[in-house]
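Give me the 3D structure for Tyr recombinase domain-containing protein.
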Amino acid sequence: MNQDKLICSRNTEIITDTLESLGFVLNREKSVLKPCQQILFFGFILDSVEFKVYLTERKIQKILLKAKILLSEGVVVIRDLASFIGLIVNAFYAVFEAKLHFRDLERNKIKGLEGSMDFDKKVQLSDSSILELKWWHNNVETKHGKLIRPMPVHVICRTDASFLGYGGIDLSSEMHTNGRWTSEAINYLELLAIFYALQALYYDVNNTHIEIQSDNTTAVSYISEFGGMASSDMDVLAKSIWMWCIERNIHLSATHIPGKSNTADYYSRNFSSSTEWMLKMDIFERICLHFFRPDINLFASRLNKRVNKFVSWFPEPGASFTDAFSVSWQNMSPYVFPPFNIVGKVINKIIQDKVDECIIIFPFWCAQSWFTMILENMCSFPATKTPGPIDISPQQRGTSFREEASTHRSNSIREALQGRGLSGELADFIIKSWSTGTRKQYQHAWRHWGIWNDIRCSSAFQTSETVVLTYLFYLHKSGKSYSVINTHKAMLLCTLPFFGNSWCKNTDFIPRFMRSVFISKPPKPRYIAMWDVSIVLRFLESLGKNSDLSLKILTFKTVALVSLAIAPRAQTLISLCLNNMIVEKDAIVFMISDILKTTAHGDSFSVRIEHFRNESLCAMHTLLDYIEATKKVRLSNSLFISYVTFKKVTTSTIARWLKLTLSLAGIDTAVFKAHSFRGAATSAAFNRGCSLKPILKTANWKSDKNFRKFYYRQCLRKQDISFSNALFTL
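Predicted structure for Tyr recombinase domain-containing protein (730 residues):
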């Protein structure tokens, strides 16, 4: 190599003549003897100008084609997957990030082989494998071009981990960081110590080469190799470290040093606890409810922060700044819980930076010089806590909610009923008149009501219509929706009578108030339009034969098809039982014996899953295949069971399966939730000509009011045909 082309040619001639004179035979056809700046070598392009290695266009197109084919199939032949992994491994020389995006594919391959060497078997691509395929498909054309030699080392950082915490030190500036944590496997902790040290010491550094020195060979290996196969947790962490560095154009290298030479060891075992104090989260939330929600926590750490954005004392991973006194507080609304010996300095900083609002925790030391400054500058009356425990007897319980703030609503009602002479068993029986879901919803509202009264120093049990109206109006001014306010209203009107508030039975102002809330903030429907059922159906059809599917995928497909076929609630799906199943020639019928949300006195309810001519989309056929596949492993007579534990599942599990199916089909699950299956199925049936009568019967609706108001929506399509095309097309 030489910058002068003529000199490079002369050097080439000297080398060739020397080799031939020594008896070597040169293959001149395969040799490049004319000086050039790019050369094709072993299928790669070496560029001496940019000093990088590039993929050839042929290799790029081959990767793109194979990635596209694998993504379109979903269930792939392991041999094809292994072939694609081979292409990726070969691309390591030319794509810097390549090692970050192949291990999930490799794990998918190993899991599919199941210890055999049958590469002609098929395997379902995992979600993580699909993400890696998409990365290659979207980035290989722009990400290839790897430096032949990385930039020289600019910074050296030593890190160490113990079961107590982590430590890190920058050798050039001698700046250090450390912190506590809970125990994990030591290898994982050593790798996590590297990440924390990088985040704390180099959060504002870009375009550099950092060398990590660690006394743990496993951590060094996971950095050097961009991850590893032995531990998936460490692989994910190593990937996070590298992505953090790549975003900042930081090149990372790692070397091993003996433990006795690791100066970071001291910091991983010695900590200062003088600043590690904090308020309990429930007390902090009550303070925020009383004043305002701060946007930053000053004088905090990773462990004791009460706001996601925080300023630390020393370099700390995740901290926005270090040393709160070194930055301006003018545009902040901070939460401050400083050491008491610097309260005066904090007050001066607040006044100096003209902070509009601030929550500060300080001792009630009226003799201190800073106490008068607080009184002169406070914009709200302080919330105080008197010393000593608060002692409230059961007879005084109606006067304060301090102890009852965390008490369960049902317990309070039970005590009230027992106070009237009812037995505990009878009280529990009456409480069961509310469904489990309603009790959970009301408990959340009850807790908010209690905290609000606690702040006002008023009773949550013996109250008045005026106080309830004031509370509801407070919720309205806080931006709560009509449905949230209505839940709180319903909870209060059905709960307060148990504590002697007879006015709840005859109130005129609360309904009038709710009408005003409705007018000023009318409830909005969750969905303006509905997803296209045909998209999900095409996805389910593309999965292939039921006999070729894993139990997990077969479960997803079955739940989705049954949900489309009978438009149920998740509650209905978990109520389907094999003991109540009747198989007919063209349908499967389930008798529902459980009490559902729509069950009325004297009602009998059944669901009918009918046969469809296309077996790949037939809910009845798929359901029978699912029952057969789970027959030998199921531990419950409930229709749908977990594909892991083989026991009955809950409504939340059913909802998660449906949401995951929507996501795999390409539906935006940030917008559409699992319950949207009910609206999508009934809307699609109506739009395709089905009359209302069978729709109402299938969904178990008494009238079309609920359907039209809450469920019927037009299909959301990427391209709607024009009015003219719709009208004049034959």
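Residues 386-406, 718-724, 726-730 have pLDDT under 50 and may be disordered. Let me know if you want a second pass.
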